[in-house]
Amino acid sequence: xxxxxxxxxxxxxxxxxxxxxxxxxxxxxxxxxxxxxxxxxxxxxxxxxxxxxxxxxxxxxxxxxxxxxxxxxxxxxxxxxxxxxxxxxxxxxxxxxxxxxxxxxxxxxxxxxxxxxxxxxxxxxxxxxxxxxxxxxxxxxxxxxxxxxxxxxxxxxxxxxxxxxxxxxxxxxxxxxxxxxxxxxxxxxxxxxxxxxxxxxxxxxxxxxxxxx
Length: 213
What we know:
Layout: E1 2-5, H1 9-24, E2 29-31, E3 38-42, H2 46-56, E4 66-67, H3 71-77, H4 83-92, E5 97-102, E6 117-121, H5 126-135, E7 138-142, H6 154-161, E8 167-170, E9 181-184, E10 191-194, H7 200-206, E11 211-212
Parallel strand pairs: 1-8, 2-8, 4-6, 5-9, 10-11
Antiparallel strand pairs: 2-3, 3-7, 4-7, 5-6, 9-10
């Protein structure tokens, strides 16, 4: 297990190299995002995703979201993304918006019991984006034990997850422990599943028909 202070350029570069190598061999990494710290694994390595869920003490009934580093990655994952979803993504990515969409049936992955959907987000954090652009899509969940608070700093994540994680990327404290807002775009109208970093009022400026669950 290694930790890297990403405020130092040389250490950040070394940490990103180690994190990419860890992901490629199926290990877990902790990374900063614009909301809270996340624990990540290769989205296309079922054994690694299973280890992520195990490290958190989480069952398959709570599948992991996926973080992406580009719009091209989003299009590679989902089928028939509705126009309103594209408008929401254009307005709020990178940032605190997660969209739930139908994933391509051909994808060779196992994120848990997803019922054919995937929750996707592009985080607004330079360390996270650098990592994602090197690894491709990552299964990422908040870097906490299930039932514990989501961590706003790397030390808190390390205290909970310990040696279950191979590489910790310390990007300093996050601005606030506010999760992303989740919008389900699999139906005829978008549905706000979870209010979070982006208010329903702001979302409705782009998607006036947004319903709240």
